[in-house]
Automatic annotation (TrEMBL):
This is Uncharacterized protein (DUF433 family). InterPro entries: DUF433 (IPR007367), Homeodomain-like_sf (IPR009057), WH-like_DNA-bd_sf (IPR036388).
Amino acid sequence: MEDLLKRITINPDIAHGKPTIRNTRYGVAYILEYLAGGDTVEDLLKEFKDLEKEDILACLAYAAQMANTKDFKISA
């Protein structure tokens, strides 16, 4: 997972400092929204030709890490 996370960068000058896939302006949240909406990894690779499968897996790994390190309040 550590290697995948190297694909995620945070730069205050890109996307208002939100996490993006390295060398792109694709936000991690943007990719996760597609996945949450039902798109598959294969769908995203067809749509975003400059991404690799590992980039999408890196977004999932980043989300998993955030879920394990942050407390989120979710209403019942």
